[in-house]
Amino acid sequence: MNSSNPASATSSNRKCKAEDSIMVNCKRTKFMKTYHRQNFSMPDSVVFFVAKNPKTAVLYLKMVKTCKYFFIKNSILVIHRLYTYGGKWKVNAKPLDLTKYTCKYWIADEIYASARGFVDKNIFLPIVPKLYRCDVKSLFLYSQIISYNDLSLLISSAERIRFIDVNVRDAESTDVPIEDIVAIAVNAKYVYVTKPIITRKTMKELTKLPNFTKVDNFTLNNLSEAFDIEAFYSYMKKNQHTKFYIRFDPQISDAFKNRLKTIVDEILETKQFNYKPPCFYFTGIGLQKIQKLRQFYNSH
After folding, report:
1. For 24-37, what is each residue's pLDDT tens digit?
2. pLDDT tens-digit map of 112-159
3. Do residues 94 and 88 lie in contact, with contact meaning Cβ atoms separated by under 8 Å?
4. Per residue in 169-181, is it b (16+ CB within 10 Å) or e — as a string?
5. For residues 126 and 227, what is the distance between their CA atoms, to the nearest angstrom?
6. In the chain, where are the structural domains located?
């Protein structure tokens, strides 16, 4: 057989899809064959409410293991670790086509998703409508585009957030500034973002967020000079909790660099800190100064 023949390839794809469909239907038929109506000691309305409103993924798994009724009434697949790289989704390290099943998904622990090398970088688009709930502690996104509404469904429980080359866009396809992302990351403890969208209001808006002051580590890479360094400087002198690591874009102006150098010199000359010393990196800072800043950063 000539594998390069388009008709043969199409026929083969159709055959694989048909076999997948048959396999899924067979498993469902086998599952339903042993399902029987239950006589619960509680009223049906109470049992139905419990089936539709599980409090945690652990509780839901216990329920469906106890009785198939709970899965029939509320069909959910609990996913502990959702991973994708190269366009293939994996669940708990095993390949899985998430678009194939009619049930909802409950993601419990971690999402690691990369769309590097793909033209269509909005890889969550077909999955979010099937999402029942997301309780992840770690949300790592790489090289992709995601809508602000979709992100709001994924990020609220996350404690560790890492965005590398990620564009978050609103309903008008406008890039969302970092302060709006932090606003919905209400449980964040560790935040790492490259090329964040910054405005002159960013730092002031961040300081208005009650959850911002609870972040343990906050790292921003490739920051433009739109960042209000004076607002940061004022906040820095009062900050006693968050460790800031800020790397600036190589193209920032000499005037902006000079202001950064003045702040760095003040930090390096401080004998005793009553705030968390941040670590800055920018072109021209000098090796000795960056090493000393890192030392202060790591020891406080």
Report:
1. 444 555 555 565 66
2. 988 876 656 778 888 889 999 999 999 999 988 999 999 999 999 999
3. no
4. beeeeeebbbbbb
5. 35
6. 19-74, 75-299
Task: Give the domain 75-299 fold.
Answer: 3.80.10
Q: Are 296 and 266 in contact (CB under 8 A)?
A: no
- Report the distance separating Cα 278 and Cα 179, nearest Å: 19
Closest CA to 111 of 142, 132, 87, 86: 142
Q: CA-CA-CA-CA torsion for 97, 101, 103, 108, nearest 10 degrees?
A: -10
pTM for the whole structure: 0.83
237: buried, middle or exposed (CB in 10 Å: 19+, 13-18, 0-12)? exposed
